[in-house]
Amino acid sequence: MALPALTLSRWDPGSVAAVLWATALFTLASVAVYTLNDILDRERDRRHPSKRYRPIASGELGVPAAWCYLGVVCVLLGIGVVLGSLPRTWPVLAYLVLNLAYSFRLKHVSIVDAFTVAAGFTLRALLGYLVLDAAPSPWLLLTVLSACLLLSFGKRRRELAAGSSGHRPALVGYSVQLADYLILVSAALALGAHTIFLLAGPESGGGSTALIVVTVAAAVFALFRYLQILVVGSGGGDPVRTLLGDQPLLIAGALWVAVFLVT
């Protein structure tokens, strides 16, 4: 949600408060979705090497208690949506509808499963624009979508390589070779959309040479490093852990953010 504020350099108190409010809404929505998924997938998660330690799958949190927890989260989310205005909160509602479909059906459909996950993160970026009353940049949204597709397909490739296809039915429609093709296409699309965003968008500060060169270089390095981790190393199964646990990726990300902050 903060990505539009970063690219637009909107750090006044009103904008920061709006972004924090949007972040809180989407955090509640995400917690609701993940809790529902954990309830529905608890039997399958028990066969997964890492997911079996989740509270519901491990039995640490009982199913009735999990449903109660989900109900409380939904009530809090409903209050937050009501306090906002529909033109601003519709991405949250769209996210919930999309993920309900994902929980009951779409997560079992190859390729559609990855698109659904990526669309959820794109809706987050869109909400970031709406709460700032700013026109969304289609190129930034496309960058977010394709980058999330890259991470989703990378996660599926790692699961295929590890032979853990039993817990995710959609993996029967993938192969390591297909995942490699999808990763390359997503990477090219992400890099291209990111570059066009910098060249064409007003957020680029009129096409600042420093902004374009440094951010594109940082993005290319981060992309290469992620592919190295995925293909040569043994990472990529947990995108969040991969992105936050690798020092070179963190440095590239910090450089990318720093350029927007100082230009």
Automatic annotation (TrEMBL):
A GO term from the CC aspect: plasma membrane
Main subcellular location of this protein, as a coarse class: membrane
Segments crossing the lipid bilayer: 20-40, 61-83, 111-132, 138-154, 178-199, 211-231, 243-262
GO process terms (BP): glycolipid biosynthetic process
Membrane topology value: Multi-pass membrane protein
Subcellular location: Membrane
InterPro entries noted in UniProt: Prenyltransferase, UbiA_prenyltransferase, UbiA_sf
Record protein name field: Prenyltransferase
Pfam families, alphabetized: UbiA
